[in-house]
Amino acid sequence: MKIGYFQYAPRFGEVEKNRSRIVEAVLQSDAELLVAPELATSGYNFLNTAQVERMAEPIPGPTTDALHRAASQTGSTIVTGLPEKDGDKLYNSAVVVGPEGLIGRYRKIHLFSEEKNHFTAGNDGFLLFQVKGIQVGVLICFDHMFPEAARALALQGAQIICHPSNLVLPEYGQLTSRVRALENRVYWILANRWGTEKTQERSLTYTGNSQVVHPAGKVLIKAEASSDDISAVEIDPEAALDKYVTPLNSLMEDRKPQFYM
């Protein structure tokens, strides 16, 4: 299976242009599973909730429809972040879309900083999605700082974790994605954005360096810090089924939940 990331710098508020850019990346990539950044259709540095509402959309909606059309041409599956509107609530969400249409949606559970002023935290739990017979989980950006999130997916049988992100803390996500991959023996696709978003109130610079990590913690491919990149690598998903560190030590079977508080 070939998996990869699409790293780019979304233009704040230009939803149609950003959506078109993601579709273009899908059509350009030879990845069977491609991951784009968090809030990839809208940008991130919101001044107020009204801005989020203007850029948010239902799921399914325009973005999932456009990705479905692209996936129908390529046979690939795409994971991307977008602001979701559901009734009177807004969510920082990610969608999984394949040739068959919308496969699923994940709503970010661990909201970061100002996100708490605009979004409702997800409450559907950590979900698995079937992609070409492979078990795929999704986390969004700050979720990476909570080892329980990745472990919850691994315990359900995740082989690949997709991680759409807008990382602003240097090295954090690039480091934890390696650690989470290693401690859970899963493949990890970190799709981060790059660039700087400035408003009158604050400036945010994103760290780029998207990467795909092997279950042994090895970085297989990695993007630069400040440029667009569509890259993919061939993997063996079966490698994520082997949870043994030694012939006598399984990361799952040796757990002692009764002692974890």
Q: How are the SSEs placed, and which strands pair?
A:
Layout: E1 2-7, H1 15-28, E2 33-35, H2 49-55, H3 62-74, E3 77-86, E4 89-98, E5 101-107, H4 115-118, E6 128-131, E7 134-138, H5 147-156, E8 160-165, H6 172-184, E9 187-192, E10 194-198, E11 203-207, E12 211-213, E13 219-222, E14 229-234, E15 244-246, E16 249-250
Helix pairs in contact: 1-3
List keywords for this structure.
Nitrilase/N-carbamoyl-D-aminoacid amidohydrolase; alpha/beta; 6 helices; 261 residues; 33% strand; single chain; 23% helix; six-stranded mixed beta sheet
Describe it:
The chain is of the alpha/beta class. It has a single domain (2-259), classed as Carbon-nitrogen hydrolase (Nitrilase/N-carbamoyl-D-aminoacid amidohydrolase, 4-Layer Sandwich), CATH 3.60.110. The protein is built from six helices and 16 strands. The protein has helices at 15-28, 49-55, 62-74, 115-118, 147-156, 172-184, and strands at 2-7, 33-35, 77-86, 89-98, 101-107, 128-131, 134-138, 160-165, 187-192, 194-198, 203-207, 211-213, 219-222, 229-234, 244-246, 249-250. The strands form four sheets. Strands 5-4-3-2-1-14 form a six-stranded mixed sheet. A six-stranded mixed sheet has the order 6-7-8-9-12-13, covered by helices on one side. The longest helix is centred in the N-terminal third of the chain and has 14 residues, at 15-28. The protein is globular. The N and C termini lie far apart (38 Å). The relative contact order is 0.16. The model has no long low-confidence stretch (mean pLDDT 97).
